[in-house]
Specification:
Blueprint lengths: L1 H5 L12 H10 L4 E5 L6 E5 L3 E4 L5 E5 L5 H12 L2
Antiparallel strand pairs: 1-2, 3-4
Length: 84
């Protein structure tokens, strides 16, 4: 997980743990995910929802953004939230 997330940037946080714990967090955030084994048997792919969550420095939820959110709208919202 760490090496995969590193390709997105140093501030991304991944989730791992026991299956039941991950399922509980996914339900809490209304996230869909499903693992599919790859044909070679050594790797896998994962279908998942494409939501970006904005969290404050204490880890509290602030907002979420869908794939349809424009970069300009997200940037304007982020600017407003950081000025508070």
């Amino acid at each position: 997980m760490k090496s995969y997330l590193a390709s997105f940037g140093p501030r991304f946080v991944g989730l791992t743990g026991k299956d039941g714990d991950i399922a509980a967090v996914a339900k809490e955030y209304r996230v869909y995910f499903r693992e599919h084994p790859a044909e070679n048997g050594n790797e896998y792919t994962v279908d998942h929802s494409g939501v970006v969550y904005l969290m404050d420095p204490d880890g509290a939820f602030v907002a979420n953004y869908s794939l349809e959110t424009s970069p300009d709208a997200m940037a304007a919202d982020l600017a407003k939230k950081t000025l508070r």
